[in-house]
Design brief:
The chain has one domain. With 275 residues, the chain is of the alpha+beta class.
Length: 275
């Protein structure tokens, strides 16, 4: 987590100096929703990986690839390497609309099962809450290496929002088991602060649960106080129709054409860095 925290600070500092870089990249990523509702999420992985390589000089990023990362123990889409000391860490990218956000799949249902073991519908005891967060079953709660790219398609704005798990742990005062409402099929444990403000939730993770019904979730609208924006707030984006045309041409062009196009695109990026 220390490595990711350092990376976040450096990333935010870069954006503070010049927002154009991330505005261009995010606009191009979210333009991919024109091609398909899920296309932008996959292309965000290689887009952000390249963003790091182009603009964050002390870091190198490697796109792991779907087949490889699914076989690994931890969720990851890219691996980030600090070129000054050689340290590296995995990072999972999430491209979600403003609202519900999955932070961890918790595939083995460690968190939910551990909460069930207390046999309580409402937990308010500070010692029990501390025991929960200090448990090995909740290790992933403090090690959320997720970079969420959040968008509001209606208002054409986007944000990179990082969930503050340490703040969430400190301010959690109530953990409640919810079994009814909103067409719920499976139970959920909701975490709240002393004023009953929503923080996050642990969803059922049994064999009958699908991806939307399991793991650690939060909500970028309801838990906004528990997020830090790496883009220093919302930024506007525009659809880039020329990019859609470029992809169509690229899919029908040869390797030689791709090599020439890459040279032109790299020159454009280099010019953007200089201005």
């Amino acid at each position: 987590m220390r490595l990711y925290k350092d990376f976040q600070k450096r990333f935010k500092l870069l954006i503070e100096k010049d927002k154009r870089f991330i505005e261009t990249t995010l606009s191009n990523i979210f333009t991919m929703r024109i091609i398909g509702n899920k296309t932008h999420g996959d292309l965000a992985e290689i887009g952000i990986a390249e963003f790091i390589n182009q603009y964050m000089y002390d870091f190198k990023s490697v796109h792991v690839g779907k087949d490889l990362y699914r076989a690994k123990e931890h969720e990851e889409d890219i691996v980030i390497i600090n070129e000054l000391n050689g340290e590296k860490f995995p990072l999972s990218l999430k491209a979600y609309g403003d609202g519900p956000l999955q932070l961890s799949t918790d595939k083995k249902s460690k968190m939910f099962s551990f909460l069930e073991s207390f046999g309580k519908k409402i937990i308010k005891d500070e010692k029990i809450i501390a025991e929960i967060f200090n448990s090995e079953n909740f290790t992933d709660f403090s090690n959320i290496n997720v970079l969420p790219l959040i968008y509001n398609e209606k208002e054409k704005k986007c944000n990179i929002m990082i969930f503050d798990s340490e703040k969430a742990k400190i301010q959690t005062a109530i953990i409640s088991k919810i079994t009814k409402g909103n067409g719920r099929i499976h139970p959920t444990y909701v975490f709240q602060d002393k004023n009953k403000k929503y923080i996050c939730e642990v969803r059922y993770g049994g064999t009958s649960a699908n991806a939307l019904q399991r793991g650690l979730w939060t909500n970028t609208k309801r838990a906004v106080l528990f997020f830090d924006s790496l883009t220093n707030g919302w930024i506007e984006y525009k659809d880039n129709l020329s990019l859609v045309k470029l992809i169509g041409l690229a899919l029908n062009a040869t390797y030689v054409g791709h090599e020439e196009a890459n040279k032109i695109l790299q020159k454009d990026i280099d010019n953007l860095k200089k201005t």
